[in-house]
Amino acid sequence: MARRAAGGAGGAGRAGGSVVKAARRPEMRLPELEAYGGGELEPEGDYDGLEFLEVDFVGQDGGGARFMDCALTGCALDETRLHHARVVDCVLTGIRGVGTDLAESTLRDVELIDARLGGVQLHGSVLERVLVRGGKIDYLNLRNAHLKDVVFEGCVLVEPDFGGARLERVGFADCVLKGADLTKATLTDVDLRGAAQLDIVRGVDRLTGAVITTSQLLDLAPVLAAEMGLRVDGGTAEG
Question: What is the dihedral of CA 8, 128, 182, 155, to 10 degrees?
Answer without folding.
Answer: 70
